[in-house]
User: Which sequence fits this backbone?
């Protein structure tokens, strides 16, 4: 493939120099948006291996319908943001493929929600009503039709809902592609170290950068700042950062085999996400749990529940088991926006939607940093909403 086109000229006469703290998918996607798409110089700092953590542990679900439409007690506009995020993914994956010369496994193939008993059927009907109320396309399929689309589904299926909004991507391929694209960009610098963040008279400084984005996932509040030789943390600059909590998630992957599923399948908390080289089975959601060590009993239970949906999975060899840490806020929505400190922005707390919301988060942060007006929808995810609620 020919070399990527030069970055576009900056859109305003003042081009800020941006530092990003945290190279998970949110930090990487924002660096990509700024450096590759908008011509803004960026330095990305992370002492941990780039693109690992929650971004690596994820399953790449792009699931506004199943994971946000029928959720209760969440941010009132989370579903709209998730839909906007899902709509950006096809173009985002094409731009990324051009910039990195590699594919990230985006698939718009609709997911299926499945039911094998009355409570699961009631859950599907509740989701269908929530999607109807929002005018979002979906289709209840007779079991025979669902079996034609996905022959690996167990024969005792009683109801199925097709969700054209819910696709998937290979999250590990995405972070690898983002790193590659940034390594190729003359405007991006990747630093495998903690940022030497300092405070001078209360103002944050970082090696001559004008603007700083905190994108450290569940660790964002604890990012270190030195003031007069004293160690402080970023939470001292905005108490909203303290509202990010941990939600552990355990998962496994199995090898493909004859007749293994090709469609993303969901039933209750279980999902089956076929990738090119493995089938991911997830996931637990464990509030307050911050371990990256999976428990054999939890993994066995997930595998057994997935095999109830797709019996072929039972005998397929397990490739990997793992546990990740989702960062979540009290309203399960990310904080995206300016903080109480004048040159500090935050993009963190994406809970179950980090992969889905990476492109839209990157766009919102780039718009803010380049002084473009935000829509009321985007403004509603400002971290200040969480200070008011605290
Ligand atoms: N979005 C997938 C998960 O949170 O497990």
Assistant:
């Amino acid at each position: 493939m020919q070399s990527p086109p030069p970055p576009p000229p900056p859109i305003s006469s003042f081009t800020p120099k941006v530092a990003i703290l945290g190279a998970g998918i949110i930090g990487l996607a924002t660096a990509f948006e700024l450096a590759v798409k908008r011509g803004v110089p960026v330095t990305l700092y992370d002492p941990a291996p780039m693109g690992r953590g929650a971004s690596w542990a994820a399953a790449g679900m792009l699931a506004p319908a199943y994971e946000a439409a029928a959720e209760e007690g969440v941010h009132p506009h989370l579903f709209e943001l998730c839909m906007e995020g899902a709509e950006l993914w096809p173009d985002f994956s094409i731009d990324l493929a051009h910039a990195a010369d590699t594919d990230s496994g985006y698939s718009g193939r609709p997911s299926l929600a499945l039911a094998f008993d009355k409570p699961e059927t009631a859950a599907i009907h509740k989701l269908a009503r929530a999607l109807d109320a929002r005018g979002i396309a979906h289709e209840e399929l007779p079991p025979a039709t669902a079996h034609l689309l996905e022959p690996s589904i167990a024969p005792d299926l009683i109801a199925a809902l097709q969700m054209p909004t819910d696709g998937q991507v290979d999250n590990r391929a995405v972070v690898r592609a983002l790193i590659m694209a940034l390594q190729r960009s003359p405007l991006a610098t990747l630093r495998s170290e903690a940022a030497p963040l300092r405070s001078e008279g209360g103002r944050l400084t970082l090696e001559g950068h004008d603007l700083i984005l905190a994108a450290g996932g569940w660790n964002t509040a604890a990012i270190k700042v030195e003031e007069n030789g004293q160690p402080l943390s970023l939470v001292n600059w905005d108490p909203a950062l303290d509202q990010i909590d941990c939600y552990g998630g355990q998962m496994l992957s199995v090898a493909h085999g004859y007749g293994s599923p090709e469609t993303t399948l969901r039933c209750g908390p279980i999902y089956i996400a076929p990738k090119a080289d493995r089938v991911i089975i997830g996931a637990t959601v464990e509030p307050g749990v911050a371990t990256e060590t999976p428990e054999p009993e939890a993994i066995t239970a997930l595998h057994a529940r997935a095999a109830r949906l797709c019996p072929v999975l039972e005998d397929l060899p397990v490739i990997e088991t793992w546990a990740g840490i989702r960062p979540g806020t009290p309203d399960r929505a990310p904080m995206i926006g300016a903080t109480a400190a004048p040159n500090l922005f935050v993009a963190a707390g994406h809970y179950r939607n980090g992969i889905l919301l990476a492109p839209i988060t990157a766009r919102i942060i780039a718009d803010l940093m380049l002084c473009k007006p935000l829509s009321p929808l985007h403004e509603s995810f400002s971290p200040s909403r969480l200070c008011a609620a605290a």
Observations:
- Residues 78-100 form the longest helix (23 residues).
